[in-house]
């Protein structure tokens, strides 16, 4: 019997969307429970480690978004075929998460002067460097994928992390054709097409 799986997070992509993509791509049936920000203060003390997202498997809850992504990708064979493949995938996951942290610091910064400084560094230095590094990795592998010749968590992570910036600039990937192709590859996956087409549009 398949395990009973529930993912709990806010009604946003945020730090849970990559895990959603992994689960959908893997054909895992799960309950996608969305928590409102208004309800969060009352729910927080009841949550493992007082944070979201958490993944519940057969009634037992587990925390930390990147740990959950690695666990799910490993369980469902989305980390490549070798330890070195898994290392490459993990590098891309870590780089993507570091970029997300920069995005969050900008979005929720209440100091307008500091926010402008961070946004300038992000747009002019950090984001182009990240995209350039990812494009180079794709060119080096020569298959259209980051490792091997099949989709892994790496492609899903890139799809997810570029969402916010593409909302701001639809031409963001014009200079990075291989990254643009990765997004199309993700969108064409049979287990992801309907979800991506019909999912709710959220700010983050």
UniProtKB/TrEMBL annotation:
Query: A Gene Ontology molecular-function term?
Result: glutathione transferase activity
Recorded hits in PROSITE patterns, A to Z, give: GST_CTER, GST_NTER
Listed CDD domains: GST_C_Sigma_like (cd03192), GST_N_Sigma_like (cd03039)
Listed InterPro entries: Glutathione-S-Trfase_C-like (IPR010987), Glutathione-S-Trfase_C_sf (IPR036282), Glutathione_S-Trfase (IPR040079), Glutathione_S-Trfase_N (IPR004045), GST_C (IPR004046), GST_superfamily (IPR050213), Thioredoxin-like_sf (IPR036249)
Q: Which GO terms describe its biological process?
A: glutathione metabolic process
Q: Which residues form the GST N-terminal domain?
A: 3-80
Domain GST C-terminal, which positions?
82-204
The protein in question is named Glutathione transferase
Q: Which organism is it from?
A: Elysia chlorotica
């Amino acid at each position: 019997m398949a395990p009973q799986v529930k993912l709990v997070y806010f009604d946003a992509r945020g730090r849970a969307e990559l895990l959603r993509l992994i689960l959908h791509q893997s054909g895992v049936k799960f309950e996608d429970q969305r928590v409102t920000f208004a309800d969060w203060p009352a729910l927080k003390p009841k949550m493992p480690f007082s944070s979201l997202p958490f993944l519940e498997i057969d009634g037992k809850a587990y925390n930390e978004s990147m740990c959950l992504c690695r666990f799910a990708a490993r369980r469902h064979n989305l980390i490549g075929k070798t330890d070195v493949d898994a290392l490459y995938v993990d590098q891309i996951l870590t780089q993507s998460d570091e970029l997300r942290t920069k995005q969050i610091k900008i979005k929720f910064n209440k100091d307008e002067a500091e926010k402008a400084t961070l946004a300038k560094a992000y747009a002019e230095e950090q984001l182009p460097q990240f995209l350039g590094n990812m494009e180079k990795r794709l060119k080096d592998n020569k298959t259209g994928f980051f490792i091997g010749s099949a989709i892994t968590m790496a492609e899903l992570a890139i799809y997810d992390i570029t969402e916010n910036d593409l909302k701001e600039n639809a031409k963001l990937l014009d200079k990075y054709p291989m990254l643009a192709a990765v997004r199309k590859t993700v969108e064409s996956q049979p287990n992801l097409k309907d979800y991506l087409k019909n999912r709710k549009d959220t700010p983050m």
